[in-house]
From TrEMBL:
Domain Glycosyltransferase 2-like: residue ranges: 138-356
Keywords assigned by UniProt, alphabetized: Glycosyltransferase, Membrane, Transferase, Transmembrane, Transmembrane helix
Protein name (Swiss-Prot/TrEMBL): Glycosyl transferase
Transmembrane intervals: 307-328, 335-353, 359-382
Keyword Transferase among record annotations: yes
Gene3D superfamilies to which the protein is assigned, alphabetical: Spore Coat Polysaccharide Biosynthesis Protein SpsA, Chain A (3.90.550.10)
Organism: Desulfovibrio subterraneus
Pfam families: Glyco_trans_2_3 (PF13632)
Family: Belongs to the glycosyltransferase 2 family.
Annotated GO MF terms: glycosyltransferase activity
InterPro entries on file: Glyco_trans_2-like (IPR001173), Nucleotide-diphossugar_trans (IPR029044)
Amino acid sequence: MSLLTVLSLLLALPILAVTLYLGLATAFSFTTTHTVAAVPEDSDENGPILCIVPAHNEAGTIGGTVRGLIQESAACPPVLVTVAVIADNCTDNTAQEASLAGAQVFERNDPLNRGKGQALDWFIRHNAALLADHPLTTIIDADTRAGSGYFRNMSAQFTSPEVQSVQAFYDVANPFDGWRNMLLSIALRCLHHTRPAGRTRIGGTAGLKGNGMMFRSSLLLRYGWPAGSIVEDLEFSLRLAAEGIRVMHTNAAAVYGDMPFTRKAATTQRTRWEGGRWLMVRAWLPRLLKSFCTKPTILLFDSILDLLTPPLVLLVLFQMAFTLLWWLSGSTLTWLGLLMLSVSSIYVLTGLIQTRAPFRLWLALAAAPAYVLWKLTVYAAIIGSRQLNWIRSEREGGKQHE
């Protein structure tokens, strides 16, 4: 084995490790059941559910979202749902539209502490009695539609006292509004379905995805929302994992959020998502490694590997680079590169198969090269940015979202 081969193999070890992790999660995702447990009639999980909807200048969408949530709650008795909208630093008619649609509205004005995480923490701290009256609390975005049976199926996941938090499948409501949204829907079917399903089966955490999350209210009363970064959901997930608390995944409930489809708006959103993830790597990786060295657990190991796993586009580009290097140098390791690429391909195909993706999404895979080139511009924007702040993603047709 040549010196070049040895050195390239050493450099490829991190990519090989996260690829194996991805393959393991994919394999275990097939062992996830799709059944919904029956909730005993005297269970607390049949008690009222508090549905929190954080909203910032969402007058164009909040009315439809609230009406949809109320209709969904009425369709699945005996579950009772209270919809509470946080009108956070709004300069439009979000509060009025939410109230007219039937929600309880809580207005917050604190321009120095902007952000979804800050709004949630404020609400939890100032409305402890409301949470105490509702055994379960779910958080849904202001531009989101809950899937059929959402409240009933989510509450059914809490029959075990060990379950403290559950994440529903979070997909794109408008997948066919442009090729970017079609490719994003494919990515979310892997990232929000296949991967968390496998992670929880091996003893890890599904992680919070920011939308379609449900908690025991006692957990939120204990923690508040101690995450104010631009990826507060990931930050809270890591905090919970560091304290031994898992987020469970369910295939039985789903939420669908509107996504921007113009290049400018989509780039803003993805820059925030992926740039924020990089900030979490820097902030949390040392803490998780320290905790793992002190008291190793599968939950911590899973969280570390997931945090180290790069976005799929970058992972595949690394895999292709090593495969090409080994092939051009005539190395016998070429098979290893092809194996890594196969694992990534199976991961994507599994996400499409498990979520029963429509045929049009399968056809959208042909646009993957254009998607990769666009994502590279997103990464360039992240590298060139001195700081990453909270920026609302503009929505087409006047709709906006934090």
